[in-house]
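Continuing the batch. This is chain 6 of the set; chains 1 through 5 are on the previous pages. Same settings as before, nothing changed between runs. Recording input and output for traceability.
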Amino acid sequence: MVRATKSNQESISDYTEHFYKLKELPRAGWKQKLEIENVESVAAHTLLMIVLVFFFSEKYGYSCRKKVRLIEMTLIHDLAESITGDITPDTMSKNRKRKLEDEAFGKITDKLCTKSLKRKYLELWHEYQTIKSFESKYVHLLDKLEMVLQANYYLNNRKGIRKENVRPFFQSGLLFTSHGPNSRLPKTSKKKIQDTKELEDIKEILEYFSN
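Output for chain 6:
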């Protein structure tokens, strides 16, 4: 029988600590704009994004490698918030937010047990933040799609929530669609026709639920 050593226990604790913090961190936008109790946590948001990854992976027949890459990026995309908190766009400049989150992510990776895991985290984080790869654009879209789906859920399942209450979330989602003014998602090279088609498909779904 193999017994867990103290170093193994510490490694697991260091690895999971910030994910546990996300389980207790409420999504700030819902609290500020809807003023409802028991809002979803950041971890719950991440979980539903992974559910969407599975849904679209089946729809498009993704390989295990591609599916895992999307799940990995989804898992870490909000991890810095375990230190910074959930910063809403209207409370801080984009550059300031990015700087704080980069610093926080650096502190998180410094605690990881192996250099290879640290390198993996930093690679995923940089890819997500630069929004150049198919996977990073995909996860950014799912981030907005899940937010819009959650807004619809609150609209249909929480008393006192009206369409005007959730409209700011729908408007935010529309900024990432093909028809949104000055779309905030960089265009994908037309050389990768299939990738472009899949991203446009998700944008159409996002636009549908945002109207």
